[in-house]
Amino acid sequence: MELFSIRGLLFLWKRVEEDDVFGLAAQLAYFFLLSLFPLLIVLVSLIPYLPITQEEMLGVVADFAPGETMEFINTNLTEIMSHQSGTLLSFGIIATIWSASNGLNAIIRAFNKAYEVKESRSFFVSRGIAVLFTLAMIFVFIVALLLPVFGKQIGLYLFDTFGYSNLFLGFWNMIRWLLSALIIFIVFLVLYWLAPNKKFKCIDALPGATFSTISWLVVSGGFSYYVSNFGNYSAMYGSIGAVIVMLIWFYLSGIIIILGGEINALSSYLKDDSC
């Protein structure tokens, strides 16, 4: 029985219902929303030590965030940072990272449910893993910011030397999206490999990582287009319209992330079943 045969898809749907994927995705959306601003505060606090600006950092988020959510994020982040006394890179950052790890802690629980394993690790070990993943996500996000910045500067220098600077700009826009997709794929691959309380090879996480990367890019782009052109959430929800849009985006992202875990768990089960 292959993973994407009719029988395999029916079995996957059965697992989706049994594991309450949509309910877990709603929980993830809630934790993602709680984690968003603590995570952004940490990143903004690191900006003085990096060759990037706050606008460039938020521009990466804006490439995927739907509708007017970026205006909401910008406004609230500016207000939060204006009330901070001194730098956040102190003892307070520990509490910030702990709070930001809520979303990843919820993902670990969802993956364990997909693999039908109990969390045998202690609370502090499990939470420590979530914190480490959060720190890794911050590092990956910084790399994702620095690669385009330095890549563009190097590319412009090389292409300008040969008089092809205009050609490079079009080429760079294509490469930038491919680079973003590659980084997202690596994040998903590592997350699916290390987060569950189950040992398996990195290659076994490929099906879920591939599915989640493609699905997340397509769904984020499609939902952003829908919100910008058809969905008028502000008319229905008023001033919290941007929050509702963000929650729906997080909810859809949660479904995709958990489905990727379910696909990996099902693939592992089918592999064992065929032996």
- Helix-strand string: HHHHHHHHHHH
Distance between the termini: 12 Å
Secondary-structure-based class equals: mainly alpha
- Give the integer mean of the pLDDT values: 79
Low-confidence stretches: none
- Helices, by number, come to 11
Basic shape: globular
- Fraction of helical residues: over 70%
The major β-sheet equals: none
Subcellular location: Cell membrane
Keywords: Cell membrane, Membrane, Transmembrane, Transmembrane helix
Protein name: YihY/virulence factor BrkB family protein
Main location: membrane
What can you see in these coordinates?
By secondary structure, the chain is mostly helical. It has one domain (21-274). It is 79% helix and 0% strand. It contains 11 helices and no strands. It has helices at residues 6-18, 21-46, 54-62, 69-82, 92-100, 102-114, 123-161, 165-194, 206-229, 233-237, 241-274. The longest helix has 39 residues, at 123-161. The model has no long low-confidence stretch (mean pLDDT 79).
Which key features would you list for this structure?
275 residues; mainly alpha; membrane; cell membrane; YihY/virulence factor BrkB family protein
Q: Which helices and strands, and how do they pair?
A:
Elements: H1 6-18, H2 21-46, H3 54-62, H4 69-82, H5 92-100, H6 102-114, H7 123-161, H8 165-194, H9 206-229, H10 233-237, H11 241-274
Helix pairs in contact: 1-11, 2-5, 2-6, 2-11, 6-7, 6-11, 7-8, 8-9, 9-11
GO cellular component, one term: plasma membrane
InterPro entries: Virul_fac_BrkB
Protein name: YihY/virulence factor BrkB family protein
Short summary of the structure?
The protein has helices spanning 6-18, 21-46, 54-62, 69-82, 92-100, 102-114, 123-161, 165-194, 206-229, 233-237, 241-274.
